[in-house]
UniProtKB/TrEMBL annotation:
Domain ABC transmembrane type-1 per the UniProt entry, residue ranges: 130-416
Protein family per UniProt: Belongs to the ABC transporter superfamily. ABCD family. Peroxisomal fatty acyl CoA transporter (TC 3.A.1.203) subfamily.
Cited InterPro entries: AAA+_ATPase, ABC1_TM_dom, ABC1_TM_sf, ABC_transporter-like_ATP-bd, ABC_transporter-like_CS, ABC_transporter_sub-D, P-loop_NTPase
Keyword tags: ATP-binding, Membrane, Nucleotide-binding, Transmembrane, Transmembrane helix, Transport
Family annotation (CDD domains): ABCD_peroxisomal_ALDP
PROSITE patterns: ABC_TM1F (PS50929), ABC_TRANSPORTER_1 (PS00211), ABC_TRANSPORTER_2 (PS50893)
Protein name (record): Uncharacterized protein
Protein species of origin: Polarella glacialis
Record-annotated membrane-spanning stretches: 49-75, 95-115, 127-150, 170-189, 248-267, 273-295, 363-381, 387-408
Gene Ontology CC: one annotated term: membrane
Gene3D superfamilies to which the protein is assigned, alphabetical: ABC transporter type 1, transmembrane domain, P-loop containing nucleotide triphosphate hydrolases
């Protein structure tokens, strides 16, 4: 499998390959199946259910057609209906049609009943799809009926039979009264089912995206991430998939019905005409499929570049203040223009190939309009057919032609749809791959797909290169993670590496006791309740926190920790979710109940008592909190979440979570945490932090580290310069760290 070059220039054309094959079908099935059938069940049963439903719909349509024709023959005045209806009714009554129309739906219903446990909560969806297909059959039947009506009208005109003409026109009027509401209801059900399917599929993807920290591992903003723009895939691609899936399903099925219905008319009219049509359509479809390969590739790339352009504009909005302070408008404008020009350049390619397709389509269909007249015209002049047959034959030819040339007619839509299926399929595969056997599953799917099948052939390589699935690499050592309720955070001979293999920490053993630790430490060793982690930037302080949280696992040794719900992580830049002030204070436990007085008390402890009064609506005020609050206020608000948490977190992890606070406010905050008897881990650079902790862990780089008590650290630092904060202390102790490593 070809590996992409590292850091390609923006807008460079990726190595893409597209193919209509079983991989496209597999990706379509895994996306489409969950709405109608449990995703963990095999696709064969789902396909059998679709077939069973189709059989039931055909059976229902048969009896509806028989009843409708009988009623029309009984009620309609003589001469107002096509003369072929009595013959059609006779064929419907001829054996074995009635028997099959009963036996086959009954057999399908029995099969459906046997798998009914898999359809719990999905009966309405199947009913909507069945109704939609029934309406499609009705529309096709009405088209056939109208073709015979116009044949009668043409014949009455040629014969100059005025009375017969008006009777035929009245029959057409009745057909319109039936057809208009049927077609309107058909369109409504089509859009309604697409909307319901979209809602389900968005929630289906969202549930997986926001579980097991998949959103973090697939972060498209991380260099080298293999899945670009998950937000677009969750919204636009899902919307297009649901609407176009129904469109293609109904168009293909409608094409088959038209082919069966009008081919019979065409065959009865002229067998040479039918043969000419099939040959013409076959040649045209082969050419269209070849042209469509390139167009599908361009559409895939256009989706990616448009999403990159939108994201560059969103970044400007989200970082407006920082850009203004830097005066970075010119640089940002240059970046947006680069992405705009890249999208436009690809769109130019799209235009060129679209024009090629358009010219080909127009030429194909314009020539096709001449074929029926050339063939049937000779029969008419030989007086072998009447004039109405000429018009009906041309109409039947156009209907059959549109059925057998669906690919030619909709090549652009098919190309766009296939690109969307590829993007959603790759997204689904990546989310499902987050597990113990992720790498094996991705490799298996890639091998099944063959080289460059329907998408970026380097997506698997991208994911591995970026380390976005660090826990799944089988060719590198992994830290063993044990999650146990009430456990302390215990690191046993842990060595930590970055996803690219750089060693950060070697052989670290440490126990961090939570305020509610119930599980004894192994070996009965004493633990640390308040730990400060220091060291130069880039040496692995925050990476160690990621390992404790379970986000990184490349390395060796073992980490034993409580569930995520027993720990609370406070980053340097707090996350301010969308919502009111109450939501900010209770996040992420939005189901917690807290009175306004309780909220005010927590804010008062942190010097934010006036915060509710600053905004109309108080705690129900909705603002863009990341903009209206200063960095220090946001950090204090994050601490308030800790004070309001119920039950209180067993362990707090503060990653420079007080960096925007003055030293006095920072000291008050830590005294408040001690008063609440909370255990915590801090990452920071200020000397003043040491007195609020029991131990200091210094990350020295290259895998080296050392662990001292706060008193030892302060004592060792008395003779050391403080020009660079706590990091400078180690220079006053020894020239380099004494390495407690397992090497």
């Amino acid at each position: 499998m070809a590996r992409p070059t590292k850091g390609p220039e923006f807008g460079a054309r990726p190595t893409l390959g597209f193919r209509f094959d079983h991989v496209l079908w597999r990706r379509f099935r895994v996306i489409a199946q969950p709405y109608f059938y449990p995703p963990h069940e095999g696709g064969r049963s789902w396909g059998m259910l679709v077939l069973a439903m189709l059989v039931c719909v055909i059976g229902g349509t048969y009896w509806a057609a028989a009843a409708g024709i009988s009623l029309a023959l009984f009620l309609a005045p003589p001469g107002s209906l096509p003369s072929q209806l009595p013959t059609l009714m006779l064929r419907l009554r001829t054996m074995p049609a009635p028997v099959l129309a009963v036996a086959l739906p009954v057999a399908a219903a029995v099969f459906t009943w046997r798998v009914r446990r898999h359809l719990a909560g999905r009966w309405t969806r199947w009913g909507s799809l069945a109704l939609l297909l029934f309406l499609l059959f009705c529309v096709t039947g009405l088209n056939v009926y109208i073709s015979y009506v116009f044949r009668g009208i043409d014949n009455q005109l040629v014969a100059r039979e005025e009375e017969g003409f008006y009777k035929a026109m009245s029959g057409y009027g009745v057909a319109l009264l039936v057809a208009v509401p049927v077609i309107g209801f058909y369109k409504y059900m089509r859009m309604k089912l697409a909307r319901q399917w979209r809602g389900f599929l968005c929630e289906f993807f969202l549930e997986r995206y926001l579980s097991r920290q998949v959103y973090y591992k697939l972060d498209s903003n991380t260099e080298g991430a293999g899945i670009d723009n998950p937000d677009q895939r969750l919204t636009e691609d899902v919307d297009y998939f649901t609407s176009e899936s129904l469109s293609f399903l109904l168009d293909v099925l409608g094409g088959i019905l038209d082919l069966i219905s009008f081919a019979a008319i065409l065959w009865a009219t002229s067998k040479p005409l039918m043969g000419s049509l099939l040959a013409y359509a076959l040649v045209g479809t082969v050419i269209a499929a070849a042209v469509g390969q390139r167009l599908m590739e361009i559409n895939y790339e256009q989706l990616r570049r448009e999403a990159d352009l939108r994201y560059s504009l969103v970044r400007i909005r989200d970082n407006a203040e920082a850009i203004a302070f830097y005066g970075g408008e010119a640089q940002e404008a240059s970046g947006v223009r680069e992405r705009l020009h890249s999208a436009l350049a690809n769109y130019d390619r799209n235009i060129r190939w679209s024009i090629i397709v358009l010219v080909y389509q127009r030429m194909f269909f314009y020539l096709a309009t001449l074929v029926p007249y050339l063939v049937i015209g000779s029969l008419y002049f030989a007086k072998k057919v009447d004039f109405g047959t000429v018009g009906q034959g041309a109409f039947a030819f156009s209907m059959v032609l549109s059925a057998v040339t669906l690919i030619i007619d909709r090549i652009k839509d098919i190309s766009r749809f296939a690109a969307g299926v590829n993007r959603l399929g790759a997204f689904y595969d990546a989310m499902e791959a987050d597990g113990d056997n992720a790498l094996e599953r991705l490799k298996t799917r890639s091998q099944q797909a063959g080289p460059a099948t329907l998408g970026k052939e380097n997506e698997l390589d991208d994911l591995l290169e970026a380390g976005r699935f660090p826990s799944n690499r089988r060719d590198v050592a992994q830290i063993r993670s044990v999650v146990e309720p009430g456990a302390a955070v215990e690191l046993s001979e842990m060595s930590l590496q970055t996803p690219t293999g750089r060693t950060l920490i070697t052989g670290l053993s440490l126990a961090l006791l939570g305020s509610a630790t119930r599980v004894p430490l192994r070996g009965g060793a004493a633990g640390v309740r308040r730990l400060l982690i220091v060291g130069p930037s880039g040496f692995g302080k925050s990476s160690l926190l990621r390992a404790i949280a379970g986000l990184w696992s490349r390395g060796t040794g073992e980490i034993r920790r409580p569930p995520a719900g027993e720990m609370l992580f406070l980053p340097q830049k707090p996350y301010m979710p969308l919502g009111d002030l109450r939501t900010q204070l209770l996040y992420p436990n939005l189901l917690a109940i807290a009175s306004d007085s309780h909220l005010v008390e927590a804010l008062d402890h942190l010097g934010l008592r006036d915060l509710p009064t600053r905004f109309p609506g108080g705690f129900d005020a909705v603002q863009d909190w990341s903009r209206v609050l200063s960095g220090g206020e946001q950090q204090r608000l994050a601490i308030a979440r800790c004070l309001l948490a119920s039950p209180p977190p067993a362990l707090l992890v503060l990653d420079e979570a007080t960096s925007a606070l003055p030293a006095r406010d920072e000291a008050n905050l830590y005294r408040l945490l001690r008063k609440r008897d909370l255990s915590y881990i801090s990452v920071g650079h200020r000397d003043s932090l040491v007195e609020h902790h029991d131990r200091v862990l210094e990350i020295c780089g290259g895998g080296d580290w050392r662990l001292l008590t706060a008193e030892q650290w302060l004592s060792a630092g008395e003779n050391a310069p403080h020009a660079h904060g706590v990091q400078s202390v180690r220079q006053g102790v020894e020239a380099s760290c004494f390495a407690f490593s397992a090497r």
